[in-house]
Amino acid sequence: MTTFPLIAVLLPFVAAAAGLLLSRARRPSRRTASIGQAGEPDDRGAHRRAAWFAVLPTAASAVLAIALAWAPGFAYLADAAPGRPVGHTYGTIVTGGIPISLTLQADDLSAVLGVLVTLVALAVQVYSVGYLHDDPRYPSYSAFVSLFTSAMLLVVYAGDLLVLYVGWEIMGLCSYLLIGHWWEERANSRAAVKAFLVTRLGDVGFLFGLFTLGVAAGSFRVSDVLSRVPEMSTATLVTATMLLLAGVAGKSAQVPLHTWLPDAMAGPTPISALIHAATMVAAGIFIVARLFPAFLAARPTLDVLAVMAALGMLGAALAALAQDDLKRVLAYSTISQLAYMAGGLAAGSAKAAIFHLLTHGAFKALLFLCAGVVIHHIGSNLMSRMGGLRRSLPVTFAAMTVGFAALMGLPPASGFFSKDAVLAAMDGALAGGGLTDAAALLLYGCALATVAVTGAYATRAWLRTFFGESRAVVALPEPEPGTAHVIDVREGPPTMLVPVALLAVPALLLGFAGSVHVDLGVAAVGVALAVLGAGVVYAVWRSAPLADPARLLGPLRVPCERAFYVDTVYAAVFARPVLAMARLVVRTDDVVVDGAVRGSGQAARGLSGLLRLAQNGNVQLYVSGLLAGLLLIAVGAVMFT
Amino acid sequence: MMGWLPVTLLAVPLFGALLLLVAPAALRPALPLYGQAVSGLALVLAVVMVAAFDYGRTATPQYTVDLPWIPGLGLRFHLGVDGISLPLVALTALLTFLCFAYLGWGRGRGPGRLMRTRPRALVFTLLVLEVGMVGTFLALDLLLFFVFFEIVLIPMYFLIAVWGGKGRRGAATKFILYTLLGSVVMLVGLLFIWSQTDTLDIVALARAHGAGMSRGAQIVAFATVGLGLAVKTPMWPLHTWLPDAHTEAPTAGSVLLAGVLLKMGTYGFARIAIPVLPEGAVAAAPWLGALAVVGIVYGALACLAQRDLKRMIAYSSVGHMGFVLLGFATLTTVGVNGALFANVAHGLITGLLFFLAGSIKDRYGTADMPSLGGGMLATLPHLGAVLTFASIASLGLPGLAGFWGEMLALLGAFRPGDGLPRGLFLTYMVIGGLGAVLTAAYFLVMLSRVTHGRPSRPRPVLVGAGATAGAPGGPGESTALAAEAQAGDADALMGGQGGLTGNPGGPEGAFGGPVGGLGGPEGAFGGPAGGPDVPVGAWDVPEGGSGGAAGGSGGLEGRPGGLEGPGGEVGALGGGRGRPAVTGGFGGDEAGAGGGPPRDIRPYELVAWVPLIVLILLFGLWPGLLLSLTTPAVQTLLGALS
């Protein structure tokens, strides 16, 4: 059992290596399989091999993760006393200072998270077999997904902060590679670069936060750090946690580093489900929960987190209400829901936040996979091209209805319970907790408003996708990369529908898994608000089914659609000045720094040119000079003696 | 004990080089093999050294040889290896061997390969270079160190000046003058140390930890020695020789320059400047750190606006060496450990990057990113994938070798050594961290430009292949044309010389033709062997002198062929743009046996790259391999400081 975490991490890693190296080995030549023209017999074989490489190890990891969580009986969610971590230290790396210990272990929190990661990854791997069945680059795609799974499990099971950081960054790399999966399109490539850079910016802060904690504790081991939190000064803790927040904001797409996530939807939809909804973006929440004692001891950090979460959840929900692209709706919804979790953490309840993380992982992955089926069917991401799909896609319709119900927090779907837990925690924080009053009030107010807006945007997306007139004309003859490649007139293939159906179960029922205590008052307010939001949208939609209900935003609509112009501002404030500075540096380097070098060379040549005048081979000149010198010496000798 | 090992390690390449002078004719046909054999033997010795090393006492020099050399001056031939120099010796032997493999695997023919221009001189130069590089890392005597340090300059000068690109003269001159100037300053510093302590023995000096030198003397000595080393490293603002040298140097030169020569500067800090002059180091560390972080950010920004791939990688070295210097400046075990790790990692990663840049330049005839046009993952998927891997390693992704050194250097700056201002170093750490983000930025932007996007043409054809496509047009002309185009800039140089000495260029073409035919399996060749064609060859001579040196050589030399016949015109079109157009590809198809489609990664490239990739992964996944080696040595060298 103690080796399970290690094996769970290694299996997908080996699968990734095998997928990258072996699944193409027998292909005679890559050049015949140029882009867009695929589906040759070789490709089929390679794909099948890659699919096995992808699915089997992930399934094995899932079994191990479940075993790890089963033994303590999912203790994190139940109100049990924390158990002993199961794991092993596989050695220590000397650094000359604080050593790095290679510890992989599963405690209550990691065990639960591990199950979420492996199960969603498994669902996505199976789903991808169908979704990308004619993509020539499926082998590398599935290998990157495996690598991602391995990295995420490393984050989850790491017992050392620097080991965790390794997984943390490799996840970012996989995100980059997979967002850019359809790299023919420059926009996708840009989105991938943006995602990597924005998260990396946060990660630098994160690394410095780890330094601060590690140096203060004299160890990078999570257990040592947590046990020494009481001895640390408040200043150290506030600095460390604030720096960690930078990384959290980057990875979990929180304000102000959230702008990469909507663009990340350029990747294939299963990737959006796995990385950009269920798992990687949840890593930021996870790390706060993992180091929660340190955060609880740093009050100012919790206030900052509360404000970030409050702004993020409402702003992102409003932005989601105005998007036309179904995946971007879900992306902004993810930002908003992650902010919920962050709000739950700020309110002092890591348990509520993690509970919401789990249910969100299930229902958001479900929503994305359903969206994938829809997009696969229509050949477009845009809701203005969808409509009336409930008849042609009955399974997807049912599953997505469950997903939206969970997102809105309607009983008995899972989201109801977890959202209620988060709201109850915020309510409790208002009564007196770690937060200052203003922050708690702002957080709770925004959270309630967001519940209503969430109801509105979920209803809008649901209605515009599945109801009304069918607008699905024959789709574009050659769909762009970033959308599905084939237009199918039927429901998706079984490899896509089975994961969807299986994910619908936890999305619906996971709420009962935790120790259910529903705060009735808060729950009633939450459901009422959600229904209110949904009702308003429904009324607007009924009045004109073809028009977009987003028009009820009025003049706010355009700013919401552009996500309040944050991107534009960042481009003007950061991107362009950096590029201008880069050009300036190149010019300076040439003119000033190298100019000095060249100048010294020229100066030397100039001087030598002067000297050369004397060395011109003219004997008369030499003799005259000699005589003149002699004369001078003679005169000097006469005068000074 | 086993003192023969370092001596043999020096003797093998030295005698290998001398043998070339003694028996040139006998070795000529086997030159590619010969180079690989000699450098391979040196590599085997280095591996033996690694295997037989006593890992229990990495802090003390092993395999020591200590013989009187010039007794009158007290100079000794003192060699030895400890935990700091062992990885660098092995790295040097490995990179040299990989360069030979890259140049000579198979037959060693093709653009940028060994047999292209003056093969014997090239082998000779590289072997002498290896002697100097290995010797620098083995030397335990100040003047012996200096001698080896200087020996390196001369072969590198010729490497750039003879086998370089179009601006090679200027670059080579700048390189040698700049670094010589630095060395002279360093020599003054070394002699100053000698005058103060009366010994040149590095081991004794390091053990003394500056005893016997006043603080002022140490500062002066550190400043002079450090300045000399900083030129070599290079430290901002003494770096401007580097981009020029790298851009113009041939692939092997770039790889060794980045992989080994830069390390000689940083190694000097670890071997001489810091242990021998600890008080000087404390006084200079804040300055060193400041220049280091300026270098990190400055290098990254310079890369961001760079158009030329090789130049970009060269500037990235400035940034990476900034991390190394920052690690040294912290004067902590962690920081210096990080610096030494980053040193080796940079050698591996940037070596690989320069190999890649060289291959790209050979295929497309240019390293100018806008001209490359993007879509490399579609046209040359494996090459694009390796480029992605190397870039990601270079931007410091955890799990690959580039990360640990930078991380440890930053960690060192988080809590610098005693006597250093902590606030200042925290600032350096933050700036360094932002530099790491910028590093990621320029590498990703480069990848986006080069590997992503739609290829600007449906099917890429190698420079050589495009020119060969002219073959069916007019047998005579196009053969000469093909041969000349194959010849690339290197042969163009010969052409230029031919012009000077009055030799007609025709024989060149006649010689090149059959060579091309033989080279078919290499992928780049395949022009049907044809008869000599004196007129076209003669045409080519002046072109070769000027145009061949101009990088996009194939095209310039193809032009005369275009005047002669329609087929030639196709080829000229193909080569003329430095990267052949569709027409070239068509021609290649018609030619059948000719040009053929582009080869992705070729065997010789695979041979040279795979070891680097494996090591990058190995050190990335298990950094303890290197850190356990250096840690005791670093603790000893820092002595009282740590």
UniProtKB/TrEMBL annotation, chain A:
<dbReference type="InterPro" id="IPR001516">
    <property type="entry name" value="Proton_antipo_N"/>
</dbReference>
<feature type="transmembrane region" description="Helical">
    <location>
        <begin position="520"/>
        <end position="541"/>
    </location>
</feature>
<feature type="transmembrane region" description="Helical">
    <location>
        <begin position="195"/>
        <end position="220"/>
    </location>
</feature>
<dbReference type="InterPro" id="IPR003945">
    <property type="entry name" value="NU5C-like"/>
</dbReference>
<feature type="transmembrane region" description="Helical">
    <location>
        <begin position="50"/>
        <end position="71"/>
    </location>
</feature>
<feature type="transmembrane region" description="Helical">
    <location>
        <begin position="141"/>
        <end position="159"/>
    </location>
</feature>
<feature type="transmembrane region" description="Helical">
    <location>
        <begin position="395"/>
        <end position="418"/>
    </location>
</feature>
<feature type="transmembrane region" description="Helical">
    <location>
        <begin position="6"/>
        <end position="23"/>
    </location>
</feature>
<feature type="transmembrane region" description="Helical">
    <location>
        <begin position="165"/>
        <end position="183"/>
    </location>
</feature>
<feature type="transmembrane region" description="Helical">
    <location>
        <begin position="109"/>
        <end position="129"/>
    </location>
</feature>
<feature type="transmembrane region" description="Helical">
    <location>
        <begin position="232"/>
        <end position="250"/>
    </location>
</feature>
<feature type="transmembrane region" description="Helical">
    <location>
        <begin position="304"/>
        <end position="322"/>
    </location>
</feature>
<keyword id="KW-0812">Transmembrane</keyword>
<feature type="transmembrane region" description="Helical">
    <location>
        <begin position="496"/>
        <end position="514"/>
    </location>
</feature>
<dbReference type="Pfam" id="PF00361">
    <property type="entry name" value="Proton_antipo_M"/>
</dbReference>
<feature type="transmembrane region" description="Helical">
    <location>
        <begin position="271"/>
        <end position="292"/>
    </location>
</feature>
<keyword id="KW-1133">Transmembrane helix</keyword>
<feature type="transmembrane region" description="Helical">
    <location>
        <begin position="329"/>
        <end position="347"/>
    </location>
</feature>
<keyword id="KW-0472">Membrane</keyword>
<feature type="transmembrane region" description="Helical">
    <location>
        <begin position="621"/>
        <end position="640"/>
    </location>
</feature>
<feature type="transmembrane region" description="Helical">
    <location>
        <begin position="438"/>
        <end position="458"/>
    </location>
</feature>
<dbReference type="InterPro" id="IPR018393">
    <property type="entry name" value="NADHpl_OxRdtase_5_subgr"/>
</dbReference>
UniProtKB/TrEMBL annotation, chain B:
<comment type="similarity">
    <text>Belongs to the complex I subunit 4 family.</text>
</comment>
<feature type="transmembrane region" description="Helical">
    <location>
        <begin position="6"/>
        <end position="26"/>
    </location>
</feature>
<feature type="region of interest" description="Disordered">
    <location>
        <begin position="521"/>
        <end position="596"/>
    </location>
</feature>
<feature type="compositionally biased region" description="Low complexity">
    <location>
        <begin position="531"/>
        <end position="543"/>
    </location>
</feature>
<feature type="compositionally biased region" description="Gly residues">
    <location>
        <begin position="544"/>
        <end position="596"/>
    </location>
</feature>
<feature type="transmembrane region" description="Helical">
    <location>
        <begin position="215"/>
        <end position="231"/>
    </location>
</feature>
<feature type="transmembrane region" description="Helical">
    <location>
        <begin position="252"/>
        <end position="274"/>
    </location>
</feature>
<dbReference type="InterPro" id="IPR003918">
    <property type="entry name" value="NADH_UbQ_OxRdtase"/>
</dbReference>
<keyword id="KW-1133">Transmembrane helix</keyword>
<keyword id="KW-0812">Transmembrane</keyword>
<feature type="transmembrane region" description="Helical">
    <location>
        <begin position="33"/>
        <end position="53"/>
    </location>
</feature>
<feature type="transmembrane region" description="Helical">
    <location>
        <begin position="425"/>
        <end position="447"/>
    </location>
</feature>
<feature type="transmembrane region" description="Helical">
    <location>
        <begin position="380"/>
        <end position="405"/>
    </location>
</feature>
<feature type="transmembrane region" description="Helical">
    <location>
        <begin position="313"/>
        <end position="334"/>
    </location>
</feature>
<dbReference type="Pfam" id="PF00361">
    <property type="entry name" value="Proton_antipo_M"/>
</dbReference>
<protein>
    <submittedName>
        <fullName>NADH-quinone oxidoreductase subunit M</fullName>
    </submittedName>
</protein>
<dbReference type="InterPro" id="IPR001750">
    <property type="entry name" value="ND/Mrp_TM"/>
</dbReference>
<feature type="compositionally biased region" description="Gly residues">
    <location>
        <begin position="521"/>
        <end position="530"/>
    </location>
</feature>
<feature type="transmembrane region" description="Helical">
    <location>
        <begin position="175"/>
        <end position="195"/>
    </location>
</feature>
<feature type="domain" description="NADH:quinone oxidoreductase/Mrp antiporter transmembrane">
    <location>
        <begin position="139"/>
        <end position="415"/>
    </location>
</feature>
<feature type="transmembrane region" description="Helical">
    <location>
        <begin position="280"/>
        <end position="301"/>
    </location>
</feature>
<feature type="transmembrane region" description="Helical">
    <location>
        <begin position="606"/>
        <end position="625"/>
    </location>
</feature>
